Fold each of these.
Amino acid sequence: MNITDLITGGIGSKAISTIAKTLNIDESRAKWIVAAAVPLMIAALNYNSKKSAEKEEGINKALEQHGNSSILDQLGGILGQGPTDDDNKIVNHMFGRNTELVTNSLAEKTGISTSQIGGVLATLAPIVMGYLGNQKQQSSGGGIGDLIGSVLGGGQSNSSAGGGILGSILGSVLGGGGGSNQPTSQGDLGGLADLAGDFFNQGNDNNKKGSILDSLAGIFGK
């Protein structure tokens, strides 16, 4: 399983449908938001895990807590109750000082209010954590980086879908330089982490960040 399951598979489609109904928007726009936001969340988690052993251990524990039962079993409750304060805290832990940047950028691109986008991110956060937690339980070991690599590129024959993706994340996410790969189809995940990392590059202006969000969403179809 890989990130496509989380965005366009059974999990993603249920989240998209609920978000569309909650915000009273069409599902294509809800799908755009999900497809742009989820890769940013996963890349940010990976970056945070590399800051220190303590950070990695904290993320590991959080994934274990969220992965105790099937994410599909949890999905109804998560989507039914709406985001909680704890879910907002997950978003803030993921993005840190970049939380406002992510929220504002998604709001600007979609024309949806920042408070509504914040609610969408808080809805997606426990789903992402639950999905990664489940994948961690099913994996044969390895660190956060190995887990993220399998989710971002698992099952892909493209050689850049393994170590290349991880190397890109480590070099570019949250303030570094971005890569030049611009994947254009759902089957080409090789540049996904490059795009996610380049979004956080402080040298990029709002237009560039908006273009990156379009590219992220475009991987999974608009």
Note: Residues 3-157+202-219 form one domain.
Amino acid sequence: MPASETLPEPAPPEEPQLSSFIRTIPDFPVPGIQFRDVTTLFQDARAFRRAVDGLSAPFADRGLEVIAAMDARGFILGGAMAYALGLPFVPIRKKGKLPGTTLMESYTLEYGEASVEIHEDAFAAGARVLLIDDLIATGGTAIAGVRLIERLGGELVAAGFVVDLPDLGGRRKLEAMGVETHVLMAFDGE
């Protein structure tokens, strides 16, 4: 080969699909549930960054003022997104975990009932809020989060999730409420 010729750079290896980082655990927490575990995605730094970037990108120029996220895995994503977008972070926690005066919303899960709370001074009325969680299944948790944001006078811009379980209908419920919903991947089944 003449000295003036160079070989082309090798193409970078193709990134694996984000869905390959999600572990499925059968019969957890109760028989019949196929639990989609995002903690295995969090354990891979590149996959975690891709998930945070994928959830953040659609909202970079949407005038967001607050990232609110659902207890507990939603905190991991929401906190990273708030940092990446330079926004405040507001936790929506399980009942009894917040120390200040709170508003509470109860809901049903695919395998039980629960309540979540938000500090009543979490953000100013009219704040443009993005709601984040790791997964949407039946929609109970997300709908409770939406209701709390609305009760505080927030303007819900959208909701974002890493995983959608479309067979359980949660995303359809949110969209029927007029909530713009973004997901990074979907898995069939429960």
Note: Residues 18-186 form a domain with the Rossmann fold fold (CATH 3.40.50.2020).
Amino acid sequence: MDDVAVDVPELLPGGVLSGTTELDSLPPYGKLSARMTVSAEDAGAEVSRTVWSVPWLPMLLLALAASAWWARRRHLGGRWFFSSRAQSAVVPDSEPEPIAVR
């Protein structure tokens, strides 16, 4: 865990300070957490936040690949790719005999 020092100007009670800080050592995706601690001689406060960073482009490519695979499997009707060729090449040895009905 790295600490980043920020200069805070004098604040009156109930005052608000907004700002941003860029951090270079964060991973590009995953669970990101930040904790801010402000302390003074007589008081202190601590706030923490957690954010999920999702890599949208790889997730989109994965979803497209899964959709293409699902559509291909649905088009084939649950058969394997080469199974239709193998089944059509089989020729029966003899014709079935008809059944006499009385």
Note: Helices lie at 56-75, 83-88.
